[in-house]
Amino acid sequence: MKFATMSMNFNKRILAAVFAGTVAMTALSVTEFTGTAKAAEIKVIVNSNPITNVDIANRAAFLKLQRRGGNLNKQAQDELVEEMLKRVEMKSRGIVVSDQEIETAYAGFASRNKMSVAQLNQLMNQAGITPKHFKTFIMVQMGWSRAIGARFRSEGMMSEQDAVQRMLKDGGKKPSTSEYTLQQVIFVVPAASRSAGTMAKRRSEANALRNRFSSCETTRSQTKGMLDVTVRDLGKHLELQLPPEWSKQLKATAVGRPTAVQDTDKGVEFLAVCAKRTVSDDRVAQLTFSMEGTGSNADQEKKAEEISKKYVKELREKAKIVNR
């Protein structure tokens, strides 16, 4: 079992629980949620990152939309402090959720609830949540599931000695997996220039190159003279270690061919499969044995929850949290 699946299930379950009953709320009066706009005032500082009264009001409205009871402002503040701890950790680990992933998840939520994106935007604004706040929430959920996956891999890796013992028990048979040699092509879009028009233009340029792509050996010559295009040789990666956001595409991509383009934090990019081979060695055995045997989906979700709670507790103990 690949932990990417486990963390994905955990992420989906969280989102499903959070949004249970949201559709029913769309029929409620808008005036129930709207309030007087307030100037932003810092209420909490988490590791030098501010949380304002506006953030808390947005989250309290979000909780109200979920029909939560009790002191919503207190619950909202607690949630935002925990999310900020997660965001800081995600940044320190280099975990980035692309705009495309967030927009896709946002649009998917609208579709599942029989709304257009415009209607969901309207609901979020009328409820006092704002699309931006909702999308930030989605980003944290997606990124945190990846952080949990990384933590699992570091804590759950079987020792080399145990892997050898396992192979001996299996009659000396070593498991096998695919090894990919990858190349990355990035059409860079600086954050300050990240408009819808610019992204669409770069996406079109990336697709044009993708359609002309012939091999990893000729990529640099093909991109010579193109503005703000970076080509990187990423080396070899086992199938079990492919990034979740690229894994499905890479497995379906033939050798010498590129994946579809994706919007990322760097701009617009695609990966190319330069080579692929089957490998079977002690490293593969160690990784394979470490990733298997985690049980049913319920067991996987329970394990993910345990890792998440422990992780957040550690972050909170090390954090500097100041209430204003």
From TrEMBL:
InterPro entries to which the protein is assigned, alphabetical: OMP_Chaperone_SurA (IPR050280), Trigger_fact/SurA_dom_sf (IPR027304)
Keyword rRNA processing: no
GO MF entries: peptidyl-prolyl cis-trans isomerase activity
Signal peptide feature range: 1-29
The EC number(s) this enzyme carries: 5.2.1.8
UniProt keyword terms in alphabetical order: Isomerase, Signal
Pfam families: SurA_N_3
Originating organism: Pseudochrobactrum saccharolyticum
Protein name as it appears in the record: Peptidyl-prolyl cis-trans isomerase SurA
Keyword Cytoplasm: no
